[in-house]
Design a protein that fits this description.
Layout lengths: L1 H48 L3 E6 L5 H13 L3 E7 L1 H12 L3 H5 L7 E6 L6 H12 L4 E5 L2 H42 L2 H9 L4 H37 L9 H32 L8
Antiparallel strand pairs: 1-3, 1-4, 2-3
Helix pairs in contact: 1-6, 1-8, 1-9, 6-9, 8-9
């Protein structure tokens, strides 16, 4: 019968440890995902900004030398990512594919202009800087018009600022919740051993002696939970990198290593602090208070 009871106690202990590890792992995993979002918010915003294209439309009388010179100067500009020349024939062909019919047969001529499509670097995609760039390019005599989607750029910048702010707010709130959840899991685990703690204290064991095994066990549980979270985060990173390489999540290995190490350290640190205060609470309780 004693053997059966010991097995029951062992199963109960393993179940308790498993729930603590699982809680720590899940919370740290979600915290790590949020950390990835915070670290890559600018990178993802830059990716969308760099999809913005301004089109420099050229006059029909523009000389080829002037066009080549303009394209080279635009390609070498600080604000340019790429500068691609698009002839009006290529533009007409692309437009016909988009609308599904040859509009030149209907009109009898090609109304489109030769152009240079310029993709800008993300730091220059603001309404003010685009106005300056457009004004500078328009000064050329052979440039007819510089066109870009002004409302879209304003909306994009507004949304980037708004999303960045709320991600930071969510990070702070979720970090606080993560600490509370891990702390609650560890406190429940120690609560089941409150009578053992008080018995050891009554026979003369010091607080440090009583606290030490609890600290060590929960630090190991925190390390195991953090390891599980790191494995899951690595899997998510690999999946995102394989399916969305344009985000470049793997381009900064140092930042990723810092993030994963931070998750591990956070798991150990929260476990250590939570265990310390949980054991301290039960050490300070009177015997009659253990039943409440």
């Amino acid at each position: 019968m004693s053997t059966s009871f010991e097995r029951y106690q062992k199963r109960k202990l393993i179940s308790s440890y498993f729930s603590v590890v699982l809680s720590i792992g899940l919370v740290l995993f979600l915290l790590g995902i949020l950390g990835l979002l915070v670290l890559n918010t600018k990178k993802m915003a830059d990716h969308f900004k760099e999809q913005i294209t301004i089109s420099v439309f050229l006059k029909d009388n523009a000389k080829q030398v002037e066009v080549d010179q303009l394209q080279k100067s635009l390609a070498m500009a600080d604000y340019t990512k790429t500068a691609t020349y698009v002839s009006k024939e290529e533009a007409a062909e692309q437009h016909s594919e988009d609308i599904g019919e040859n509009f030149q047969e209907f009109l009898g001529y090609n109304p489109l202009k030769n152009s240079i499509d310029v993709q800008l670097k993300a730091d220059f995609v603001t309404p003010e800087q685009l106005e300056e760039i457009a004004a500078e390019i328009t000064e050329k005599d052979y440039v007819q018009e510089v066109s870009y989607d002004k409302p879209l750029i304003g909306l994009l910048n507004e949304n980037v600022k708004r999303i960045s702010f709320w991600i930071l707010v969510a990070s702070g709130i979720f970090t606080f919740i993560a600490v509370l959840l891990i702390n609650s899991s560890i406190r429940l685990s120690i609560y089941s051993k409150r009578f053992i703690i008080k018995t050891m204290q009554m026979v003369g064991a010091t607080k440090l002696f009583i606290r030490k095994p609890f600290l060590w066990i929960n630090i190991k549980l925190g390390m195991l939970g953090a390891f599980l979270a790191i494995v899951a985060l690595t899997g998510v990173l690999y999946y995102v990198h394989e399916n969305f390489p344009e985000f470049g999540l793997m381009n900064d290995p140092v930042i990723l290593i810092i993030l994963l190490v931070s998750v591990f350290v956070l798991g150990v640190l929260i476990s250590l602090v939570s265990t310390y205060f949980a054991t301290q609470r039960f050490l300070n309780l009177r015997t009659d208070e253990l039943y409440y």
